[in-house]
Design goal:
Growth Hormone, Chain: A, 2 domains, 501 residues, globular
């Protein structure tokens, strides 16, 4: 009986100790939904204002007279307008990230939203080519929010919920693109479309593309107001925290330790001491003085940043090829779609892509891990590029059902390939040496990404034209060149860390 009682007592103590350890184990943190929603709302206007010009940019270029009546030159000038935005952004976005490390994320976000608003309104009033160029350059120069938003999202989340938060980013991007395509297509030249209502106002006759631009600006200024009123500064370096309040909170937590088993106390006390050190304003000040831009020039940052740039190049080439190939006549290797059909296809794709990413990415990441998911998803770009010549083959032989089936396969593969963005963003943020350098790290990534997005349209458009003019591989050389680039990037992917630490 004595042995039974001792065994029972031992079991009870062991169970009590296990309960204490379970209580001390960290649980998944719920997402800060309000702050996350504001950051996603901040991100959306960039894609909206960037894409709203696509439905009417060719007509706008021709209306300026810059082509001298030769409409074959329109594509060159339209491509220049599209590329300049990313080129100027590449020069300035790193500086915005570094500024946000010093003055906080919120001020930079507000400046960016206000800059977008002014530049897109200016674009709507532009009826000379030089005015268009200046407005587009201003939009790229004043908008540094994409890198700052990623830094802020990292700061408001932790390891247990960060992947779920970043899975929402593609939805914000897709929503911006979707609204941009719709607003630009439906509201451009409203005086001609609705002569009995909007056509009564001379403003819309003189500036036929002002209406879609002012509607886009209203979305941006609404985001500015919401951010000003409700967003809380996420950077701990620029957030005012009382040292006395921190001490009081730690003391209150220390008072609860007696109610926990001894094993739990040993586990909790070192954590509290670490938190006290982190919370100390003296420690924060010393740490801030040690931060240096050179600190991010390490393999853990450089490799993911290079991948982000390569991904941006490949993705931008794909985005440029879609309307370019879809609109080209079937005899020249395209599908011969109208602008309405192209807009509808791209709108449906962006809507599906954003929705699927939110629900699929966290599950896929848990199952495959970041490296396997990145490599597998990137490989789907091989499908997106290789299906172009197959679609044209079916279109020329009037196999319409087969053409649309392959088109759906292409768009589905493109959705899978988009998982790469969320993966590489996690790698970039994970590689930052400290939270004080998140802005600089994301700024560096976005700088390279913007540079590659500026190069992508010119490169792939030239390859497309050269393939047709020289009849290289039956006019399909551009697609096989892009497939080769994808394979090379996949080889470079082996240098990524296997897991996030």
């Amino acid at each position: 009986m004595a042995e039974i009682r001792r065994c029972s007592q031992t079991c009870e103590e062991k169970q009590s100790g296990e309960e204490g350890l379970i209580e001390a184990a960290p649980l998944p943190t719920s997402l800060p939904k309000t702050q996350l929603a504001i950051l996603l709302l901040v991100q959306m206007p960039e894609q909206l204002t960037a894409s709203v010009i696509y439905p009417f940019v060719n007509q706008l270029v021709m209306s300026t007279g810059i082509t001298g009546g030769d409409d074959r030159k329109t594509g060159y000038y339209a491509g220049l307008i599209e590329s300049l935005y990313y080129a100027v952004e590449a020069v300035t976005i790193l500086q915005w990230g570094r500024v946000s490390d010093h003055i906080g994320r919120k001020p930079v976000i507000l400046v960016g939203l206000f800059g977008i608003t002014l530049s897109i309104v200016s674009f709507g009033f532009s009826n000379k080519f030089w005015m268009i160029i200046l407005s587009r350059c201003a939009q790229g120069a004043l908008n540094g929010n994409i890198g700052v938003v990623k830094s802020a999202m990292t700061e408001i989340t932790d390891a247990s919920n960060m992947t779920r938060a970043f899975a929402w980013l593609p939805l914000a991007w897709s929503t911006g693109y979707t609204l941009g395509f719709l607003i630009g297509g439906v509201l451009s030249d409203p005086a001609t479309k609705w002569p009995n209502s909007v056509g009564r106002y001379p403003l819309f006759h003189r500036y036929p593309y002002f209406l879609p631009c002012i509607v886009s600006a209203s979305v941006s200024i609404s985001s500015w107001i919401i951010t000003l009123l409700f967003f809380k500064e996420s950077s701990s370096k620029n957030r005012t925290v009382s040292h006395g309040d921190n001490t009081k909170k730690l003391a209150m937590r220390a008072a609860t330790i007696h109610d926990k088993p001894a094993d739990t106390q040993v586990d909790v006390l070192p954590r509290m001491l670490n938190e006290a050190e982190i919370a100390s304003p003296v420690s924060t000040s010393l740490e801030s003085t040690r931060t240096n831009f050179r600190s991010i020039l390490i393999p853990g940052v450089i490799i993911p940043v290079l991948h982000y740039g390569l991904l941006s190049f490949v993705d931008q080439c794909m985005l440029v090829l879609m309307p370019l190939m879809y609109s080209t006549s079937r005899s020249l290797g395209g599908l011969g779609f109208s602008s309405t059909t192209i807009g509808l296809v791209m709108t449906i794709w962006t809507m599906l892509n954003g929705t699927i990413q939110v629900y699929a990415f966290p599950r896929l990441l848990r199952r495959f891990g970041p490296k396997r998911l990145y490599i597998t998803s990137f490989a789907f770009f091989l499908i997106t590029f290789s299906t172009y010549p197959l679609m044209n083959y079916m279109a020329r032989r009037k196999m319409e059902a087969g053409m649309w089936l392959i088109l759906c396969v292409q768009l589905g593969a493109y959705i899978v390939a988009y998982n790469t963005y969320s993966c590489i963003i996690l790698y970039v943020n994970n590689g930052a040496p400290s939270r004080d350098l998140l802005g600089a790290t994301n700024g560096l990534a976005q700088t390279l990404g913007s540079m590659m997005r500026a190069v992508g349209p010119i490169t792939v458009s030239s390859l497309f034209a050269l393939s047709l003019q020289k009849n290289l591989i039956g006019g399909t050389a551009v697609y096989w060149i892009m497939c080769t680039i994808v394979i090379l990037v996949l080889g470079f992917s082996t240098y990524l860390p296997k897991s996030l630490t």
